[in-house]
Every structure is written in C-alpha cells, then in structure tokens.
Amino acid sequence: MTPTLEIVRTPQPSEAAAERLARAIARVDAQRGACRLAIPGGSALAVLPHVLKDLPQGTWSRVQLTWVDERCVPASEPDSNRGAYLRLGLPPPAVALPLWADDDDPARAVARFGREFVRTFAGALDVALLGLGEDGHVASLFPGHAALQAAGAAVFVADSPKPPARRMSLTLPVLRATPLAVMMAAGAGKRAALRRVIRREAGLPTTALAYLVIATDIDSEGESDE
C-alpha cells in the first residue's frame, strides 16, 4: 500500500485532530464494536477532551486504550504520560493497557505488554494519536536510535536523547501496521521537524506510517527548503 500523507492547516489544530480521530474511532466502533487506540503524552493530550465531545454517546466506554510511549516513572509523577492522561479526569474506557506499571522493571514490562497486547488488542491498533518532537521523533522512537529496529510490540529505551532517559515505546512495526495515525504539530518550534516529515525524510519514523493525517497551525513555509 502506498503511504498517504494528509495535512490539515488550521488555527485550531487540537480541534481538527480531534475531529479526524473521533470520526475514525466512531467508524471502527460501528464496524467492530470497539476501537483500539494508542495515545501519547505532552501537548497532544489536549486533543482528547475534544474527541470525547465529538464521539457518539457511549463510544468512549468501548475504546480499548493504550499508550504510544511512557516514561519509566510512577503515574503520580509529572513526567508520566499515563499520569497526565489520568489527570484529565476523562471517563474510563473499556480497557486501559499501560506500557509501564509502577512496579515494573524493563524486561518484565516488555514481556507483560507483549502478552496483553496480543490477548486484548489481538496484536494491533486501529488508530494512533501522535505528537511530534522537534527532532522528528514520535512515541519514543528517535531518528537514528537503535529502538527503531526493535521487533515485537514494545521496546525499552534506556538512553532517550530527550529526558527522562528511561522510556517504553510501541515499536515501529506496530505503528507501521496501524491503518491511521493522527498527529498534532503545533507551534513554530515544530516547523523544521514538520518540514522533514512532509518530505518523508529517510530515517524518520513517520516516513514508515501507512496513513498519516497532520493537524497543524504551521503555515506552508514549513514545506519549503531554506
């Protein structure tokens, strides 16, 4: 299948990303009775309250939720992606499968997640919400990092270029197999990274994605070389 890239430029990228994400979740829910969704931390989490407003009533309660990456810290700490989600105070989904539990060690976390991802998610996602790092990373898959070569469902990253160093991430094969990824890229600081994503630069994890929708408030100058 030829990879597809769609760009939605808008002053309100959170709302645009939410609309596309909600539409995809509702479509899968109507077909399968549940949607398998992965979410990030960071500024992209601002999308989720808008998603719940856009979804048909009851849909979120059937969502099977996991994370595209997590920092290896307790959920009570500010750095925790899962903790940031919990602090939004959203209604519970049907399933919430963490990449990192508070009492995990890396080997146990990778094995546990791999088993549960196969058992609960049948080893696949329907849609992923992504943020974009200024270096072009998504999840905790950094350009040029060995974690990009990992197989299986999850990978432990011991030496993330961006602190905190210890992280868990979905692997590139999982994201590559996901039918739709919706990315929010907001703010002028993401301009250079967005330009690289749009060019489908070799070595960027986004270049491997099957269908990527980018909601951004960055103008078209982000597409041109300087």
Notes on the structure:
The protein has helices at residues 13-32, 47-54, 81-86, 106-121, 172-176, 191-198; strands spanning 4-9, 36-39, 64-67, 69-71, 95-97, 127-131, 154-157, 167-170, 180-185, 211-216. With 226 residues, the protein is α/β, with parallel strands linked by helices. Strand 2, helix 2 (47-54) and strand 3 (64-67) form a beta-alpha-beta unit. The longest helix has 20 residues, at 13-32. The mean pLDDT is 94.
Order of helices and strands: EHEHEEHEHEEEHEHE
Mean pLDDT: 94
Uncertain spans, ≥5 residues at pLDDT below 50?
none
Overall SS class: alpha/beta
Give the CA-based shape.
globular
Short description:
45% of the residues are buried. By secondary structure, the protein is α/β, with parallel strands linked by helices. The chain has helices at residues 13-32, 47-54, 81-86, 106-121, 172-176, 191-198, and strands at residues 4-9, 36-39, 64-67, 69-71, 95-97, 127-131, 154-157, 167-170, 180-185, 211-216.
Give the tags.
226 residues; alpha/beta; 7-stranded parallel beta sheet; 3-stranded antiparallel beta sheet; 6 helices; 10 strands
